[in-house]
């Protein structure tokens, strides 16, 4: 079919959405005991850049990160195997989510990356990855809920800064741009691993509406479609907005530094756009560990002890 599932008739699209919601309820909360958590941010950034280069869709990118998180949370893996694992997660996810002609070829990837990986060793890693999940890798991610929820992103009575929306098409473009930004943020920080994917997507949409001064922040339609009230979203939104503020402050500091040195070109490349969103900085591709203690540190993923438990993984 030419159209995607969220464009089908309302009953069928709702059934698919409800199936995704039921499948996310089966996801187990991650233990957060991986000794490789320090590397996660760098690998997620690498996946984002690679997906962008090969024009892979957002579902493939999010699924690749999901596979990486769930595999490393369950199994011990050496640092020198990370390249093989992250490449395997990318290719498996792209095979699952993309059309065949868009799936990157293993040899092409290796030539581009200049990694010295063996094809037979890669196949072994792919078998290990698939076997770890018993070949059931159709995990719902925040990205899988995006297009369905975006159909309800703007309500008929929404206001911008207290006034009626003049150009709804333009408002939607800005809103989607902010939602994409927050989805990237949600991938990069391990704090979001305790939340259900649909709640993360809902919170990204609410955070985007906040940044664009669209009111009400959470409409009745959005509550009915997502099955989350405002109270369920608050903890996740708070983290998103805090990280957004950190990005803004970092960009402002970069601007001050570039101004003091007379280098305005850096600012022009990373200037805040009219949506108020900021680009997410990517660290260098070859990080070094400060010390042995930092490398082996684990980050526990603990469900906060308050009333918003319906939005957390069990």
TrEMBL record:
**Which residue intervals are annotated with compositional bias (Polar residues) in the record?**
252-263
What the entry lists under Gene3D superfamilies is as follows:
Cyclin-like
Q: Which CDD domains match?
A: CYCLIN_CCNJ-like_rpt1, CYCLIN_CCNJ-like_rpt2
* Pfam families referenced in this protein's UniProt entry, alphabetically: Cyclin_C, Cyclin_N
Q: What are the start and end residues of every segment in region (Disordered)?
A: 252-293
Annotated ranges, domain Cyclin-like: 45-131, 163-242
**What keywords are annotated for this sequence in UniProt?**
Cyclin
The chain positions of domain Cyclin C-terminal read 140-273
Q: Would you say which domain of life the source belongs to?
A: Eukaryota
In the record, the note on similarity to other proteins reads: Belongs to the cyclin family.
Q: What is this protein called?
A: Cyclin J
Give the species this sequence originates from.
Clavelina lepadiformis
The lineage is: Eukaryota, Metazoa, Chordata, Tunicata, Ascidiacea
